[in-house]
Write a structure and sequence with these properties.
Number of helices: 2
Helix content: 25-40%
CATH class: Alpha Beta
Largest sheet: 6 strands, mixed
CATH topology: YaeB-like fold
CATH superfamily: RelE-like
Oligomer: single chain
Radius of gyration: 13 Å
Shape: globular
Structural class: alpha+beta
Strand content: 25-35%
CATH architecture: 2-Layer Sandwich
Number of domains: 1
Order of helices and strands: EHHEEEEE
Distance between the termini: 20 Å
Length: 97
């Protein structure tokens, strides 16, 4: 499996990492580490995360320590990360990506 990250997801990740780092030194790095762990899990076990709205090809992984999900789509041998979505804001806004 290969990992691809949607350009808007890259911007969201960068923004949130910078925000958390500005709140407390090292917290942004912890968020990055958790995101990387989810990427590794998705690459190793692509179907481990729950399906999104009964779509077999879309999954939503939940971060443990931060209020975010990483929705992704399985496309052939690729995992396409669609967003870094806050759990309490605009549910499903990323669904058209």
């Amino acid at each position: 499996m290969k990992l691809q990250i949607h350009r808007l997801a890259v911007a969201e990740i960068d923004h949130e990492v910078d925000y958390y780092e500005s709140r407390q030194v090292g917290l942004g790095a912890e968020l990055e580490d958790e995101i990387e762990a989810v990427f590794a899990m998705a690459l190793r076990f692509p179907e481990a995360a729950p399906q999104w709205r009964k779509r077999v090809d879309r999954r939503v992984a939940v971060l443990d320590r931060f209020p975010f999900t990483l929705p992704y789509q399985i496309v052939g041998d690729e995992i396409v990360v669609l967003a870094l979505a806050h759990t309490s804001r605009r549910p499903g806004y990323w669904s058209r990506r």
